[in-house]
């Protein structure tokens, strides 16, 4: 059992990373292997709508000068996918959006290759815009025919400066419950 997590923040090891790491620590304690990929500093191009993936049907995007194909492969091999983002102007980061657009289109073109994997969204926010961001990530999971575990609140943590979110006790507790429910669900699906 494996979960791959992507931190879409432009800032490495910030609040989104802290939230994801809390979920991941629970998954590890439950015996699930995890990998965290941080997108900070990467140039990830957006989808060009060429639809080549619908003719090649090889689980790859025709754009091959960035890491998206490697990331698609990691998602294909995983039982669960965590997508984390800070809120930027009320939405996810452009890096995560580009990854979703290209991986998502490739998945749809390949008979919904992420179908029935478990997907969890994690959002770091200073004040406002967390719910639209959370919803947008979940819409990717839903159209991919993935299964979404719930938590005790929506998966959001509050903070501005690096590390602030550690002081959001309820947010961190929400991540722990998410980790437990995600592990429970993956084990049920693998049984
Ligand atoms: C370009 C940019 C736009 C932002 N827009 C918002 C926003 O719309 N709403 C908000 O509450 N916080 C906003 N923030 C604050 C971040 O969401 C917040 O600091 C978050 O904790 C950063 O997570 P990170 O440490 O993982 O990068 C913005 C930050 C940046 C850099």
Description:
The structure is a single chain. The mean pLDDT is 98. α5 links the parallel β4 and β5. The radius of gyration is 16 Å and the shape is globular. It is α/β, with parallel strands linked by helices and 191 residues long. The longest helix has 22 residues. α1 packs across α6 and α3 crosses α4. It is 43% helix and 16% strand. The protein contains 6 helices and 5 strands, in the order βαβααβαβαβα. Strands 2-1-3-4-5 form a 5-stranded parallel β-sheet, sandwiched between helices.
- Major β-sheet annotation: 5 strands, parallel
Total strands: 5
Q: What's the average pLDDT? A: 98
Bound molecules: flavin mononucleotide
What percentage of the residues does DSSP assign to strands (E)? 15-25%
How many distinct helices? 6
Q: Based on helices, strands and strand pairing, what is the structural class?
A: alpha/beta
State the strand order across the main sheet: 2-1-3-4-5
**Principal-axes shape call:** globular
Radius of gyration: 16 Å
Which series of helices and strands comes N to C?
EHEHHEHEHEH
N-to-C CA distance:
11 Å
The percent range for helix content is 40-55%
Compose a concise summary of this entry:
With 191 residues, this protein is α/β, with parallel strands linked by helices. The protein has 6 helices and 5 strands. Strands 2-1-3-4-5 form a 5-stranded parallel beta sheet, sandwiched between helices.
């Amino acid at each position: 059992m494996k979960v791959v997590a992507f931190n879409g923040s432009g800032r490495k090891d910030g609040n989104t990373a802290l939230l994801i790491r809390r979920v991941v620590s629970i998954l590890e304690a439950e015996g699930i292997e995890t990998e965290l990929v941080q997108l900070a500093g990467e140039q990830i191009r957006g989808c060009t709508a060429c639809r080549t993936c619908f003719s090649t049907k090889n689980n790859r995007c025709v754009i091959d000068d960035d890491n998206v194909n490697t990331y698609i492969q990691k998602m294909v091999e995983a039982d669960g996918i965590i997508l984390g983002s800070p809120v930027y102007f009320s939405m996810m980061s452009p890096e995560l959006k580009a990854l979703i657009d290209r991986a998502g289109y490739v998945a749809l073109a390949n008979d919904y290759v992420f179908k029935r994997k478990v997907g969890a969204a994690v959002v770091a926010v200073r004040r406002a815009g967390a719910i639209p961001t959370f919803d947008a990530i979940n819409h990717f999971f839903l159209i991919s025919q993935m299964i979404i575990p719930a938590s005790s609140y929506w998966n959001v943590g509050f903070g501005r400066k690096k590390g602030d979110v550690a002081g959001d006790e309820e947010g961190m507790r929400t991540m722990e419950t998410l980790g437990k429910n995600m592990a429970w669900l993956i084990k049920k699906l693998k049984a």
